[in-house]
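Thread: MU-OXO-diiron complex, take 2
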Amino acid sequence: MIGEKMQDVINKQIQAELYSSYLYLSMAAYAHANNLKGFANWMTVQASEERGHAMKFFDYLIERGGTVKLMAIEQPPVNFKSPLEIFQKTLDHERKVTGLINKLYKTAVSEDDVASQILLQWFITEQVEEEANATEILEKLKMIGDKPSGLLYLDKELKKRGAGKE
Ligand code: FEO
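Output below.
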């Protein structure tokens, strides 16, 4: 059975993952409002991946005999200035999440909870990918600057992202 401390921090992480999902859905709404269907697709897929992350922790807590306690989810920002801003905010957010995951891992070590350490290793690897994806798109947006043709090309590329893994 999972310890109370580990259970509490995992419940907080479920909240953080669901907030991430909400944040990216808000960015998808912004992209739709600006006729950027590819950006909207990318953000919608990202939002569903974040829900998948929350569910991974949810299922794990149950498997370990813990109790899931869902908490209130803060309202995400709703006004964005540009695609560049949403990807800057995405990268900043993912860096914050990486910090949370690393902290969770350290708690699992200090609690001597080996099973949680193994679960968290998946998330540590996932965060490397999350930051790399956001960085790549952000760098492309910086290169594009204010050229509409570049933005439309990238929008087309982002439309290709399919709903894949969690
Ligand atoms: Fe669940 Fe984007 O990290």
